[in-house]
Amino acid sequence: MRITLDKSLIAGRRLEVDANNGTQFIPLTADLAAKCGYSVDANPYGNSKIFASLLSCFSADREDKVFDMTLRLRMYNGHTSAVDMQEVSKTCRNQWVSREILCETNYMEVSVDRLPPEMDRSTQSLLNRHGSNVAPEKLDYALTPITSLKHIWKMVFQYGPSKEKPMFLNEARDAGYGVATSPSRLIIRSPYDAREVYTENVAGVPMKVFKVTTYFKEKWSVTMLDTAAVCPAGGLKFIEDRIIWTVPRHINPLLTSTTSETLEVHMGIDGKILTNAEMAAKGYVMSVSESHIVIELPIGGSDGFYKSRAVDNQYHITYIIKPMVEIVWREEDSDHLTRYKAFFPINTPLMRRPLVVINYTVPEEQMFDVLLGAFLEDVELVNITLQAGSLSVAQANVRGYNIQEQRLANGSKTFTLHVPFSDSAVFQSSPNPVTIVYTLPLVFGLLVKPEQSMFTHPVLLEAVLQLAALPTVTGSCDEGYYHVTVEYGGQGKYFKTMLGKRELTSVLAEEYGLTENSTHMSFAVPFLAPDAVVSLVQSTAVRGRLDLVFWDPFNNRRISDFSLGCTFPMAMIECFSNGTMTALAVKAESVTSLIPSQLTLKDPSCPPIFSNDRFAYFSFDVNRCGTTRKFFDGFMIYENEICLAHGNARKYSKTTDLDYCLTVSCYYIINETQQIVLNTNSQTITHGVEIGIGELPVRIRLATDISYSTFYSNEDYPVHKHLRHPLYFEVELVDSTDPHIELVLKNCWATLGGERLSTPSWDLVVDGCENFEDNLHTTLHPVTRDTRVQFPSHIKRFDFKMFAFVNDTLGVTDQIFVHCDTVLCDSIKHDYGECSSQCVGLPTIKSVKRGSRGTGQAPQSKSYISSGPVKLSNLLLAGL
pLDDT per residue over 548-580, tens digit each? Predict the structure, then answer.
C-alpha cells in the first residue's frame, strides 16, 4: 500500500499517526515504523511516499481480503508547534497465497496461513450439534484457534547454523520485532539490524536472514509454525551509466525441498509493477537465468532522483532509485505458494561535483557580482563568513549584499552574491596611480537537507579598476529631443552619469534608448522629460536645458559636467472655430515650488483637464471660466488668465517675491487669421505670453423656400430659377457657441461674374439695410430660435426676386452671383464703428442701375462670402 504526499517529510519535521481513532497520536519513529510495517521515502523536491504493509499495525482488516487504512498525520517543525495536519486514506484488496514475504527499506516481513483447514469443519460441526445451547466458553474456544496471538507460548529464533534464542512474546516485541495475527494469518516483522538477523550468501548474493519458530500452547496440545524471511543485502554493480542488480532466483533458506517451480517474475519501481512496454520505454531490462534474476537500470532515469551529499567538506551527489522484484514459486510435491516481494533502494557511489565560481564583476560598477553553483534542490546557503565574522543570509541582505537563489531549467540552482566595493569587508590597494584593486575574501556556508550536514567553500574575489581620462560630451537638439553622445576616453566607462538629479540606471537608459559600445554611449531625452528643466516659455517655443554630471564613485567626487540648452517649438495656445480654447502652462525652473495641478483659470472652478509635475493643460469655451471679450475693427480677442487659486478666492503663490500668472488670448477674424501680441502685467513672472489665432467661418446658402429649412448643396449649383422667382438667402456664423456675438450683414450685391468686384453689379443690402431704390427691393427676414437655430444672432436672412443683367455687348444674361460683406459685433454693446448703423425704412443711398454698380473695395478687416451661380430658366426678354 503506497500513499503519496505533496509535502516533503524532511528533517526538522515530525510525523505522527492516529493510533486510536483520533484519540491518540503516536510519533512514527524509526523503531515503530519497522515494527509496525511502515517506511517513508522523501526526496528533496517536496514529495513524500508512505509505504505500508497491508497487515500493518493501523490498517483495518476485512476478512483478510479488503484492507482500509486511514492515517491522520500531524507534521511538526522542530518539537513544539504543529504546522500541518493531514488525513490520508487508502483501500486495497489482496488475494493471499500460503506464504508472503516482503522486503522493505527498513524491515523484513513474513506472513503465513495459521488456520488448518479442519478447524472450520470442527467449528461448524460443534455449532450443528449444540445450536444455541453452546456454552459461551465452548463457542469462544471453537472460534479461537490455538494459533491465536494469546496462545503464543514462546518464539525460538535461529541465527546461524546451530544458534537459537528463545523469547516470550513480550521479549520479542521489546527486541524490536513485530508480531501480530490477522483473521487467518500470522505476521512477523524484523528490522534489518536485529541481533538475531544474520547474513548468508545465496548464489553469490549476500542476503539478510531471520528465522523463527512460534509455539502455540493450549492445555494438552502444542502447535508450532515455522516462519522465515530472506532479503537482498547486496548484488549491485555500477558499470558506467548503468545499475546492475542481481537477485537469486532460488532463495535456498526459504526452501524445504531441492527443487521449486517459478511461476511468475516481475519488476517494478516504488511498488508498482511495470509492463514490458513500460520497461522498454524507460530503458529498464530484466533477464531471468536458471540461477539469477538480473535487472539493469540507467543512472539518471526519471523514476529516481539525485541527492546531495557532503563528504570531507566536499560536494558530492548520488542517484537514488527504488526498484522492486516479485517472484511467485511452488515447491516440489506441494500446493502451497510463496510470493516474494523485495524493495531495494539503490544509492549510486558518490559522484564529486566541483563547484564553479563565476565572477561577473564589472569594476566600473563598483560592485562584486559572483555566482556559485550549481547545486541540487536540497542544498541551502545559510551564511557567509568574512574576516570580521559570519553573517546569515538575512543579515547579509540587510547589510546590502543582495544574496539571491537562482533556479535553472534543469532543476538545479545557483546562488548569486552582490557586495558593493564600499563595504567594510572589501580591501582596496593601488599598485599605481591609475589602478585600484578591490579584494574580498569570504567563505560560503552550505547545508544539505535533510541530513543537516554542513560544508563550506572559500572564495577570493578580486576586481581591478583602471582609472580613465575625463569623458567628452557632445550634444544637439531637434524638434523634440536632446541628443547626447559621451565618449568614455582612456580605459572605458568607470564613472556614474547623473541626468539632472537622477542616476542613469539601466531602467532610465532603456527609457531614453541608450546605445553603447566599448568607447561611446548615446541617448535621446525628450525635452519635457523629468530629467530636463524648462528655463523659459516663449510665444511659440520652450527654452530648456539638460544637465549632466559625471561622478567618480571610488573617490566620491565630481569629475566633470555638461549642459545642453535648446529651444523647442511648441504651440502654447490653440484657438478653434467652434469657440474653444486650449492652453498649456509649463513649469519652469524659476518656480520650483509650483504645483501645476493647483493652477486654474480666472474662474477657480475651471482647473486643468490634465496635469502632472511638469505642466497643466486647459481646454474651455470662450464664454466660460471668466473669459473676457474685446472687439476691434473687424476682429475680436478672447482673454483669460492661468494663475494659482485657493477655494473660491484668487490667491497667488509667492515665488521669488513675485506672483505667478499667465495671460492667454485668442484673436478671431471672419474667414481669415492674424496674429497680435499683447503685454502682460509687469508685476508677474511671465514665461512668455502668446496670442492664439483662429478663424470664425461664415457661409452663405440658398434655401429652397421661405421656411429656410432645406438648402441647395454644392452639388446642386448652378441653381435654375424663373424670372421674378424669389431667392431666399441665409448668411450664418458657423460653429461659434458665444451667444454675445452678433453677425452683422453690411453689404450684399449681385454680379454677373463669379469675382466679387466684377461688373456689372447690383446692390441688394446697403449698410445692413434693404435697398429701397429698387422697385423689386430686397426683404430682410427676422430669425427666431428653433430646433436648428440655437443662436439667432449668428444668422441673417434676406430674399429678392430673380432678375437678369442687361449688357451692351451680351444683351440679356442668364446667371447671377451673390456676394456679402459681414462683420462680428457685440450683441450687447454695438454702438461703435460698423456695428452702429441703423435702418429707418427710407432710402439711404442713391440706387444704381442694374446695368452697373460701384466697384469700391470693402475694407480688408471685413470678410466676404459668395454664393454659387443662379441661372435664369426660360429667359423671356419681355419680362425685363
Answer: 998 877 667 677 789 999 988 888 888 887 788
pLDDT of the residue at 538: 72
How many CA atoms lie within 13 Å of 420's alpha carbon, on the beta-carbon side?
A: 10
As a whole number of angstroms, the distance between CA 157 and CA 162 comes to: 11
pLDDT at 192 exceeding the cut of 80: yes
167 vs 873, higher pLDDT: 167
The DSSP call for residue 492 is: S
Rounded CA gap, 748 and 599, in Å? Answer: 47
CA pair distance 873, 862, nearest whole angstrom: 34
Candidate CATH numbers 3.40.50.1980, 3.50.50.60, 2.60.40.3210, 3.30.420.40; the one for domain 472-568: 2.60.40.3210
* Residue 354: all three cell numbers together: 566541483
CATH of domain 572-695: 2.60.40.3210
Whole-number mean pLDDT of the chain? 81
- CA–CA separation, 249 and 232 (whole Å): 12
| pLDDT tier at 880, thresholds 50, 70, 90 | very low
Q: Mind listing the pLDDT tens digit for each residue in 606-626?
A: 999 999 888 899 999 888 899
Q: Are 332 and 258 in contact (CB under 8 A)?
A: yes
Give CA separation, 869 vs 725, 727, 751, 787, 848, in Å.
15, 12, 10, 29, 22
Domain boundaries, the chain: 2-95, 113-347, 355-466, 472-568, 572-695, 698-879
Q: What kind of architecture, by CATH, is found in domain 355-466?
A: Sandwich (2.60)
Domain 355-466 identical in fold to domain 698-879: yes
Question: What pLDDT digit, counting tens, does each position of 766-797 carry?
Answer: 888 888 777 777 889 999 998 889 889 899 99
Give 702-710 contacts, CB < 8 A, sequence gap 24+.
Answer: 702/727, 702/728, 702/729, 702/867, 702/868, 702/870, 703/728, 703/729, 703/730, 704/728, 706/781, 706/799, 708/781, 708/797, 709/788
Given a contact cutoff of 8 angstroms between Cβ atoms, the answer to whether 58 and 1 are in contact is no
Which whole number is the average pLDDT over 208-231? Answer: 92
How crowded is residue 27: how many other Cβ atoms within 10 Å of its Cβ?
Answer: 11
How many CA atoms lie less than 13 Å away from 560 in the CB half-sphere? 12
What pLDDT was estimated at residue 875? 47
**Given a cut of 80, is residue 25 above it in pLDDT?**
no
CATH class of the 698-879 domain in this structure: mainly beta
